[in-house]
Amino acid sequence: MKSNIREAQNCNKLTQLKYWPVLFCAIMVIVSACKQPNQASQKPTLFLIGDSTVKNGKGKGDGGLWGWGNFLPAYFDTTKIVVRNNAFGGTSSRTFRTMGLWDKVLVNIKPGDFVMMQFGHNDSSPVNDTLRARGTIKSNGDESQEIDNLITKKHETVHSYGWYLRQFISDIQARGATAIVLSPVPRNTWKDGKANRNDQDYGKWAAEAAIQSGAYFIDLNKIISDRYEAEGEAKVKAEYFNTTDHTHTIEAGARVNAASVIQGLKEQKNIALNKYLTPAARKKGARL
After folding, report:
1. If you ran DSSP here, which 8-state letter would residue 277 be given?
2. Which residues is 116 bridged to in the sheet?
3. By C-alpha distance, which of 179, 183, 172, 173 is closest to 207?
4. What is the pLDDT of residues 224-253, one digit of tens each?
5. Residue closest to 184 by CA, chosen among 15, 67, 270, 77
6. For residue range 50-59, what is the model confidence (pLDDT) as tens digits?
7. Phi then psi for 35, rounded to 5 degrees?
């Protein structure tokens, strides 16, 4: 009886040895497939976040108005990088977070990605009212204000404009991605032939937040304002804006703003995002 059991065990061992090479190969194929990088998922992404000057309405030229984010992809080799315009009209650096919009972007950010942010136009709104309740404290400081939000009916701690930018940057860097802060584009408002600059408020605070957090900064407001002044108030008003809106650009103005973003990017050659520009975009003064 014991002899029969021993023979059966030996038989099982031989059977296992016979099929083990096949089983081993099958296991290795599965492991290799799991480790094989997905080409699509490995392609880096440039995320754009901001307000309606980045993406107006649904991004389809609503009311004849466009954000510069619509025309930015043309400057990039989209076979090597994905460009996603996640900006949302009416938001401030505060409400882009409190509305849950940032969480939806953040979950998709991976190492090697890039995030461009441009907020500020709506941050000057009231901190608490029944219309938007979207304002932030006007600084790059750590001061805060406790409110009972008249819209959400919830208690909320409101921080400074710079504080919210620094939180975005921290979140981005924690994901292994690169943060690029832009000063807000100028409005179509003039004084003595000079364009609307923000180097004493939101542009200044955006730069401070970026430098403080180790992020890149592009002074988009200065680049565009310099161009506006060189071309003249009459041309800018006639070609880049309509007659009723001094904040949002028509298509020609949005294209100018997109080209200005690329100009600012190329001026900082150490930003790795530059390597994804198309050959045409790399040329001096490129406007697509």
Report:
1. B
2. 48, 180
3. 183
4. 999 999 999 999 999 999 999 999 999 999
5. 67
6. 999 999 999 9
7. -85, -20
